[in-house]
Amino acid sequence: MHRMLVSRISRRVLAEHHVALTKSLGENSLEAQDPHVGIIYTALNLKTSIDKCVKLLQSRPYSVEDDMEESMPNRRWPEVTVDGHLDTKFPYIREHLE
């Protein structure tokens, strides 16, 4: 089962990448200084991506019954602190990271 899922995901990623590369070649995106090569974002800022995920999570109400016990009615999402080399950029597939 694991091998089948990995194979399926790999084929889907390759197909998405091929379609994105084909589309970008038709649009002459090389002149636009686009930080994408197909589906690979070549200048991914990890802090920005983490902040986006935190904002999405914190916009979700914490009062969902599955997430909260009755004894903690004022519970909030934890604060997230990103520390380290905050300006580091590297190539990655953004959707897979997020």
Describe the protein in words:
The protein is of the alpha+beta class. The protein contains three helices and three strands. The chain has helices at 2-26, 46-58, 94-97; strands spanning 36-37, 40-45, 89-92. A hairpin with a 2-residue loop joins strand 1 and strand 2. The longest helix has 25 residues, at 2-26. The chain is extended, with a radius of gyration of 19 Å. It starts with a helix and ends with a helix.
In short:
43% of the residues lie in helices and 12% in strands. It is α+β, with helices and mostly antiparallel strands.
Number of DSSP-assigned strands: 3
Major sheet: arrangement of strands: 1-2-3
The helicity comes to 40-55%
Question: What is the straight-line distance between the termini?
Answer: 24 Å
What is the residue-mean pLDDT, rounded to a whole number? 81
